[in-house]
Amino acid sequence: MFRKLRDKTRPLRRRLKLGVATYRARNKRSSLICPVIGVTGSSGKSTTTNLLRHVLAGQGKVEALCIENTLTPLARFMAALPLRSDFVLAELGASQSGDILSMSTLLRPTVAVITKVGIEHYSSFRSREGVAEEKGSLVSVLPENGLAILNADDPYVAAMSERTKARAVTFGWSEGADYQVLETRDGFPKQLEVTIRCKQGVFEVATPFLDSTFWLATAAAFACAVELGMEPARVAELIGSAQPIWNRLQTLKIPKGPIFLLDTVKAPAESIEGALAALGKASAKRKTVILGTISDYKGDSRKPYRAAYRLSRELADRVIFVGDHSHRSGATEEDIERGIFASFVEPRAATEYIRQTAQPDELILIKGSATQHLERIAFDWGQNVQCWDPRCGKTIDCRTCGLVEFPRHLHKRKRWSSRWTARYRSWLGGTQ
């Protein structure tokens, strides 16, 4: 009887997104009385969420969902929430129209944080206006007594205050921002320091980040935490003790070898300049850029690659393209002959080249999308990387996967083995 009912109602449940986890999540949400915070934006949302998780943990118990920012992980996360929490925090991402609204309706946030609007998933949204319409769905579901934390420097984000009756608080460099950024100081190997002025005074915020682009996440997290009742000085202290997300412009130092600057989460065209600027400001005897596939651009496909190569050529000693787009660089024969430009279709070949040519303490920026897994180039210096499949299909990074030391065809077997080993150990523990 149950099976027949399940089969007959499946089309309706899928259309209304009424899976078991979603049903439980909605029931659990009705029982929550703590602040529920949703974070979205074209960039900076994962870092903002990660910072907020750390900062708010200094005030109480925090349940957070970071990086896994789609509807299914959100439903599972909410279904498993404990009834007693001081803060619930979730990152929301979008790949097509309606995603943010679906997740916002399920999350029902009391606080919304919007970082910025950019050309994200260009094939779905086509313009910044389309992205703004999608991201703004988060503030549109806020209750009247809710709170919107908005980027004052981004006109698309600032305009979202008109889409909600909730109180709006702004952050950014703009005059009149409630949390105004006055100054940033950075430059590898020094960490970023941000000066923020608010109604409580002026505060110096030391961060765990290396580049000034992270002022955005720092100011957003600072503003949100203070508005939720924390002392600004305490928030600044906690931000300084946070651990950054490892593959978002963070360093990996190889003993007696190069220093890798890893930025391998995504590579939209508008993010390339910021990553290269971080390399340009860094102090190093020799600098190298390794660039993978560029995404989210419109028009001629050669344009973003040629622009990236020209800028890389100015800021670095050599440039390496990885993928099937080397012909788009516009590199001259002279650059190739002098070793200024090199290209490889697969990461393994690039790794072998880097091993042969890298110098001690050389700073190597790796910028690419998650599906290319260019982090393997750096991992191979400390691990015996055996998984070199250029199209493994996984969107999680190699560190999260944990199977980089096994060939791709063994991953399924290893995952099955580790799952049953964990269950067996759990069973042994329960029988003692």
Automatic annotation (TrEMBL):
Domain of life: Bacteria
Keyword field: ATP-binding, Ligase, Nucleotide-binding
Residue span, Mur ligase C-terminal domain: 248-369
A Gene Ontology molecular function term of the record: ATP binding
Residue ranges constituting the Mur ligase central domain according to the UniProt record: 39-223
Short name of any one Pfam family annotated for the protein: Mur_ligase_C
Name the UniProt record assigns to this protein: Mur ligase central domain-containing protein
